[in-house]
Structures are given as structure tokens and as C-alpha cells.
Design brief:
Rossmann fold, 8 helices, binds flavin-adenine dinucleotide, alpha/beta, 251 residues, Elongation Factor Tu (Ef-tu), domain 3, globular, seven-stranded antiparallel sheet
Length: 251
């Protein structure tokens, strides 16, 4: 569908926060689902970007300029129409979190924090967010997590803001002395792998959102295949969210 860009913000560095008018998507979108976006210019393959928030009839997504596609997307101006497919993918399963008294942890790294914002809102402010960034200059959207979570921990690789170290270190500390009912993770693969190890050791139900490179986004081209539960699955159609214990991290 073609959706009007109604708000565009450059938050920090190369991070862009877009809001589009998309009543049909807003009606059904779940946290963890994504949009497959035709970025513009000479970039003709769509790029997957997570749904970060839904307010009324508008849908928000936040992205970092990584290459040609996202660079073209960042040039789009308010009032223009963006060609996109969505909402795609399965989204997070919140049933474990809703039916337990333990802590609910959202662990996000870099661009992986964005699908977790909608999840924080869906969980009604009960979650604790641990957000990891490269450095203080890359820290963004923390105020919104603060407003929608019980607690917020920020970690930076170089210690220039928050905890000095990886977000997974913070998770390890929390897991050592708390009962965790559910863990939701999105970020770089090494971070998700460590989180999956902590979850396995502590027997925490954990879901990860895989950020595989994609082609069609609707399950036809199998570009985004990965090994989950011993079989090949399509991240776009069968995921992007999977139970961490089922993912073959050594693939
Ligand atoms: C389900 C899903 C949800 C996503 N949500 C977001 C989001 O909310 N915000 C956001 O900024 N990004 C998100 N991404 C990543 C985003 O799709 C890629 O950054 C984007 O496609 C890069 O396109 P490009 O043309 O700018 O860069 P390219 O020129 O295609 O690539 C530039 C660099 O980015 C790396 N890259 C490309 N695609 C991916 C990918 N899928 N995962 C990891 N690295 C990649 C490449 O290896 C390369 O180093 C998501 C990806 C998936 C699969």
C-alpha cells in the first residue's frame, strides 16, 4: 500500500524516526511485526523495518542508515507516499509474560530496540528494558522506554553513558538475583546468542527477533532462511520472532 509520511525526525546520528498514516496496518499490527519498504531512488528491493509504535491510525518506524536502501529512505520528505507491505511476520508471543508474576525483560541492542518499544506498551508498563548502544552519542529513544517500562537500564560498549559494558552483562546480573518470567530480545546476533545462553541456563522462556537479510518478505524467495528447531525456516514468514532455545546459533 501507499502510505503518507506525516512526520520525519532525525533523532541522533543516522537514526530516522518516521510516522506514516496507515489505518489498515494500525488496526492489526503486533509488536515484532515489520514493514517491507520500497525505499526509493534506484533501490528496488524492499527493506524490512520493524513497527515501533502505533498511535490511532498512524504507524511509526525508526531506522538507521546502513546502506543504499536506508539512505534513500532517509531522503523521503513529509507529504510523500511510501510504498510498503505490512504488517508482516509473526510478532512476539506475550502469553508467557502475561501469565506469570516474574520479571519481564526486554533486551535490545542498537536498531534492535525499536520493535521492543511497541512490546513495552503492549505489556502495559510491566517490563524492564535493558538497552545497549555503542556509545553515548548513539543513545536514543530512552525517554520513551522510561515512560513505558517499570525500569530502564542503559549500557554502552565504551561506558560513555550508563553501565560500561554489554547489555547482556546487565541481563546476567538481573538474572542472578531475580525470577524472570519472560525475556524478549532483538539486536546483533552475538548479543542474541549470549542472551539465549543465559536464558537456557536459567530456564527463562525467551524469544528473539532475527534480523536476517530478506528478499521478498512474504515467504516466496527463501533468501532469509535459517535453521530453527532442526529445520529450515523463513525469517520473514515463519518469524522473525522465534523461541531462543530452538535457534541453531552455530549455523
Ligand atoms: C525483521 C527485520 C526488522 C528490522 N527492523 C529494523 C528497524 O526497526 N530499524 C532498522 O534500522 N533496521 C531494521 N532492520 C535491518 C534493516 O532491514 C537493514 O539495516 C536494511 O535492510 C539495510 O538496507 P540498506 O540498503 O540500507 O543496506 P545494505 O546496503 O543492504 O546493507 C548495509 C549493511 O547492513 C547490513 N544489513 C543489511 N540487511 C541487514 C539485516 N537484515 N540485518 C542486519 N544487517 C543487515 C549489511 O550486511 C551491510 O553491512 C530489520 C531487519 C529485519 C530482517
Amino acid at each position: 500500500m501507499l502510505c503518507k509520511l506525516i512526520s520525519k525526525k532525525n533523532t541522533v546520528g543516522n537514526i530516522y524516526d518516521f510516522t506514516i498514516e496507515a489505518p489498515e496496518i494500525a488496526k492489526t499490527a503486533k509488536a515484532g511485526q515489520f514493514l517491507h519498504i520500497l525505499c526509493g531512488g534506484s533501490s528496488y528491493l524492499r527493506r524490512p523495518i520493524s513497527i515501533c509504535d502505533v498511535v490511532g491510525k498512524s504507524v511509526r518506524f525508526v531506522f538507521e542508515i546502513r546502506g543504499k536502501g536506508t539512505e534513500e529512505l532517509a531522503k523521503r520528505e513529509t507529504g510523500e507516499y511510501i510504498d510498503l507491505l505490512g504488517p508482516l511476520g509473526n510478532g512476539f508471543d506475550t502469553s508467557v509474560a502475561e501469565n506469570s508474576d516474574g520479571a519481564i525483560i526486554l533486551l535490545g541492542g542498537g536498531i534492535g530496540i525499536y520493535p521492543l518499544y511497541k512490546l513495552a506498551k503492549e505489556l502495559g508498563g510491566k517490563a524492564t528494558a535493558i538497552l545497549g548502544f555503542r556509545n553515548a552519542a548513539a543513545v536514543t529513544h530512552t525517554y520513551e522506554f522510561q515512560q513505558s517500562c517499570r525500569d530502564l537500564f542503559v549500557a554502552t560498549d565504551d561506558g560513555s553513558a550508563g553501565y560500561h559494558g554489554f547489555a547482556t552483562d546487565v541481563l546476567k546480573n538481573i538474572a542472578a538475583s531475580n525470577n524472570i518470567a519472560a525475556l524478549y530480545v532483538c539486536g546483533p546476533t552475538p548479543m542474541m546468542k549470549i542472551a539465549a545462553e543465559i536464558a537456557a541456563e536459567k530456564e527463562i522462556p525467551a524469544q528473539v527477533s532475527m534480523e536476517q537479510r530478506m528478499g521478498c518478505g512474504i515467504g516466496a524467495c527463501v533468501t532469509c532462511t535459517c535453521n530453527v528447531g532442526g529445520s529450515n525456516v523463513r525469517v520473514c514468514k515463519d518469524g522473525p520472532v522465534f523461541w531462543a532455545k530452538d535457534v541453531n546459533w552455530n549455523e
